Amino acid sequence: WETQQVLVTEESFDAQYYVAHNKYYEQVLVPKRSEFKGKMIEVEIFEAGKHFLKGRPLDGSEVFTPSIAEPLQKGEVSGLTQEQLSLQQNGSVPSSGVLTASWSPWSLDREGLKLLSISLAVVAILVVFMWEKLH
């Protein structure tokens, strides 16, 4: 038997267990208890299969959140400026309907992506046309 610290990340496909990962990113199946989701727990490995391990929580082991910062409360959004947060709380959302931290040429909305796609298609057609004319 071996004890390991694991991070519980998701529900198993058969919905009977939670899936956790140890420091080697091996899958460890643990009992499905709501207080485990998103937490680190210490388990005793009692079974091993080809693609998984099974672990049972150690009695008296602490369940904790592996984070430097406090977890966000339900409904709380990270990365918003105070101005954006107050707009959201007042119900005033920009016309795009999206709150963004700042504009970047690498972050495009749906319309920007559509325009970029059309532009690239036109450029590709022009390149093919020019290639045909030159050869």
From TrEMBL:
Keyword NAD among UniProt keywords: no
Segments forming a coiled coil: none
Domain TRAM: 1-59
Ranges annotated as spanning the membrane: 112-131
Pfam families assigned: TRAM (PF01938)
Superkingdom of origin: Eukaryota
InterPro entries in alphabetical order: TRAM_dom (IPR002792)
Residues of the signal peptide: none
Keyword terms of this UniProt record: Membrane, Transferase, Transmembrane, Transmembrane helix
PANTHER family: RADICAL SAM PROTEINS (PTHR11918), THREONYLCARBAMOYLADENOSINE TRNA METHYLTHIOTRANSFERASE (PTHR11918:SF45)
The protein, known as: Threonylcarbamoyladenosine tRNA methylthiotransferase
Provenance organism: Salmo salar
Gene: LOC123732147
